Amino acid sequence: MLNTFIYENDPECRAHIETVVREHIDANDYEMELALSTGSPNAIRNHLSSSLLKRNLYIFGVNAQQETNGVLLASEIKKHDHWGKFVFVSAHAELLSSVFTHRVEALDFIVNINPEDVAKDVQECIDVAYTRLNALTAISA
User: Which domains does the chain have, with CATH numbers?
Assistant: First the structure.
C-alpha cells in the first residue's frame, strides 16, 4: 500500500489536488490511499510516526510566506523516510532552487498556474511514484 500525504495551506488548491489524487487512484485501481491532506505541518509530522516504514508519496505546497513551507517539511521527513517521493506544487517558480538547496530529491516541481496542467502533472507523478515504489518493494522482498 502506498500512502499519499498532501500538505498545502491554500484550501482551494489542496481540495483540487485531493480530488485529482482520489480520482486517479480509483481510475487506475492503485493500491494507494490518501493518508492525510492538511494545511498543518504538525498534522503531517504527527501522522508520520506510523507511516515511516511504508511507501509514501508527499505532495507539498511551497510558499515563501509559510513559516514551514513544503520544502522545509520535506527536509525534516527525508531524514527518516529515505525512500519517500516528493512532489512540490507552487505558483512561485523561483522557489525551485530551494528544493536543491535542501537536497530532498524531488520527483517534480509543478508550477501552479493552470489547474488542468497541475492535474495532469500530479497524475503523471502518481504513476511514476507508484511504479518506482513498487519496484523498490519487489527488490527488497
Answer: 2-140 (3.40.50.2300)
Q: What is the mean pLDDT of the chain?
A: 87
Q: How far, CA to CA in Å, does 111 sit from each of 54, 62, 97, 126, 139?
A: 28, 10, 13, 16, 33
Which residues lie closer than 8 Å to 105 by C-beta, 6 or more apart?
A: 78, 86
CA quadruple 66, 47, 59, 135: dihedral positive or negative? positive
Q: Calculate Rg over the CA atoms of the chain.
A: 14
For residues 38 and 95, the model is more confident at 38
The per-residue pLDDT for 141 is: 52
Tens digit of pLDDT for each residue in 46-85?
888 765 557 899 999 987 666 668 888 999 998 888 889 9
Q: Which residue has the cell 510566506?
A: 65
Concatenated DSSP letters of 28-96: HT-SEEEEEEES-HHHHHHHHTTTTTSEEEEEEE--TTSSS-HHHHHHHHHTT-TT-EEEEEES-GGGH
